[in-house]
Structures are given as C-alpha cells and as structure tokens.
C-alpha cells in the first residue's frame, strides 16, 4: 500500500528471481536488535510532533531505544533538542512525556543543577563553591540534531546529521507538494502497541499480497489492491491493460469514492490546492524509513510514526491533519476518516503479530520474497547496507 519507490514507468516492477528474506533471528534476537538500534535508529530522523504542538517553554521527551531526548521550544521560539541527562551525575532532567518548563531553565530534579533552555549551557550548580578544575563551560547539555520540515519536528541522535528530504525519504517527497502541510491543524492523535519487530511493520506496509484477506473494506475502496498489487505495473501483462480507465487496473479509488473514509465521502471538503492528479491517485505516500510516513488523501493527511520498544514490540502513533477551515466546519465529521484508517491499521497490526509469532519456529531460518514484494527487497537491502556500514557483526 505504498509508493515508497517510484516504479519504473515502462517495465514490469516485480522481482524476477526468488530472493531470501532477512534471517528471522533478526526479528527477535535481543543482541541483533541492539545492533539495529545503534546502526539504524540512532542515526535516523525521528518524527516527534508537529511544530505547532509546542508553545514557548513546552517540551516533549522521546526515548529512542536507551537514549532519552528532550525537545523544547525556547522562550525565543526556537526548537532545541538535548540528551535528557544531567552532566552532574546523570539524572534524567525532564521526567514527563510532555510538559512546560517553569522558567527559561532546565532544572535537574536530583540536585537542581540548571541549564539554559536556549543553548544547554550550565547556568548554576547548588554547591557552596566550585572546586578547582571544575569547568562549567564544558558541562553543557549534549545537543541532539533537530530539523523542522514542513511543520514536522524531527530529531536525530547523530550529531552530524543534517536533514535532507531528497535522501531521508525513500524518494523525494515532491508528491506532497500540493498538500498544505505547514498550515494544517492536528485533529486527532491515536496510539497503539503492536507485538512485532519494527521491520515486520514496514514489510507489511510495503506489499499488498495480504490485502484481500486482511483488508476487505480497503480493497473495496481501492480495487487494484484486490489484485494484491500496489502499482499497475506489478503484473507482467500490465501493458495489455494500460489504456483501461478501470480503477482495478489503473489504481485509485473506485468510481464515485472521494477519500479514505468509512462512507468514502470527502464531505465537500476536498483540499483546494490539490491537482486533478493528486485526486485521481487518491492516496499519496512519502516514507522515511525506519521511523515515519506521511499519507495524503483528498481531504486530510495522516502522519504515522513508530518506535521500537524492544525486539518484538513497537509503539505506533498516528495523527490526522486537516485544513483549519475543514476542521472548523461543524458539518465535517473527521471521525469518518479516523475510523477508516484505524480499522486498516488494526487489521495490519493483527497480521504483523501473526507474522512475528511464526518467525520463532526453530527450523525456519528465513523466508522467500515473491515477485510482488520488490519493495521489501529494497527495504531489506537498505537494512543490510546500514548494518554493513557500521560493521555490525552477526549477519550475512
Ligand atoms: S544529577 Fe543532576 S544535579 Fe545531580
Ligand atoms: Fe495492510
């Protein structure tokens, strides 16, 4: 259900040879999971929240594996991110998932060292004197890379990272250019925990072989998905159907449907800046593996982000964005698009959990990718490259 990679416009997309999956131990072995957290997650751009969610002195904390990060908006309005750890003896500084600082200082709850929110500088200790050799200037908070892209706040534990949408998304997110992301308002948040590895989530997201069985409501709305494919070119005889204006072959929603909602209606609130192509496509995705994707629909946008809680557990979060005038319209019921997406996400969650459980079978070392799973091949190669880049042991 993705378009993480632009399909070749003229050729058959699918895999021509049977490809082995990643070793299944990689989906549950704690030591391997720790390697992936270090090699992949602690070098990736993590979606935190919408910039508009933080007023001056508001903060959020995010745990990326073992690493705790505090993200705040300083009194001057600039977003900052630091390791959420005191330079004295290491206590956590901000203890809540979100809150507001009482002043322009981050004050350690243990012995009350205080740091300037706007640059992390150590402002004061609570000792009677500062001993010889104590270098206050060298004891500021450790910064974390932060970027604000189209109203989305992102952090990266790699201090040298610079966010580049051309490379940090799987392909440049030009397809979202007509969606007024910066100006949209968040209308709803949703969270869930899924008992699966983070790679299991993305692999499920990147194929539609499962769609007819798992998503009966979705394949009714997007008829091409009933053919178990994500792009018209995913079958070898696609040129024979290229001229057909039938959504089962060209993609997009069924005739008469307007958006991904329980009643398929945009309720008269199609986003005014979208083009006929955007509307015909029906769904527009941009993914930034491994942490989040943005899904644009004719009347709303959904941002979905995940965070591993362990080798076999993740937290999945979604938020729904609407043009302000849509959300303010009392005749527009956002619950219809929310309910449809939650239905699909919960169906996927159950499939992922079944997948995860089966990968423990002792004789089952790895699986095989079928032709339609070509994006999984790219994803698995992407994982391999990142592990190789840091010389992570234990993989082949
Ligand atoms: S650990 Fe923070 S002031 Fe002591
Ligand atoms: Fe699915």
Key terms:
396 residues; alpha+beta; Naphthalene 1,2-dioxygenase Alpha Subunit, Chain A, domain 1; Rieske Iron-sulfur Protein; 2 domains; 5-stranded antiparallel beta sheet; 4-stranded antiparallel beta sheet; 11 helices; globular; binds FE2/S2 (inorganic) cluster; binds fe (ii) ion
Query: What portion of the residues fall into strands of 2 or more residues?
Result: 15-25%
* CATH H-level homologous superfamily name of the largest domain: Naphthalene 1,2-dioxygenase Alpha Subunit, Chain A, domain 1
CATH topology of the largest domain: Naphthalene 1,2-dioxygenase Alpha Subunit, Chain A, domain 1
The tally of structural domains comes to: 2
**Range of helix content:** 10-25%
Low-confidence stretches: none
What do you see in this structure?
The chain has two domains: 19-43 and 169-389, Naphthalene 1,2-dioxygenase Alpha Subunit, Chain A, domain 1 (Alpha-Beta Complex), CATH 3.90.380.10; 46-149, Rieske Iron-sulfur Protein (3-layer Sandwich), CATH 2.102.10. Helices cover 23% and strands 23% of the residues. It has helices at 30-39, 165-168, 198-205, 211-214, 216-221, 238-241, 247-250, 276-281, 324-328, 335-358, 374-389; strands spanning 19-20, 46-50, 58-64, 67-73, 79-83, 98-100, 105-107, 114-116, 122-124, 145-149, 152-156, 185-194, 284-288, 292-296, 301-310, 313-322, 368-369. The protein is globular. It starts with 18 loop residues before the first strand and ends in a 7-residue tail after the last helix. FE2/S2 (inorganic) cluster is lined by residues 86, 88-91, 108, 110-113.
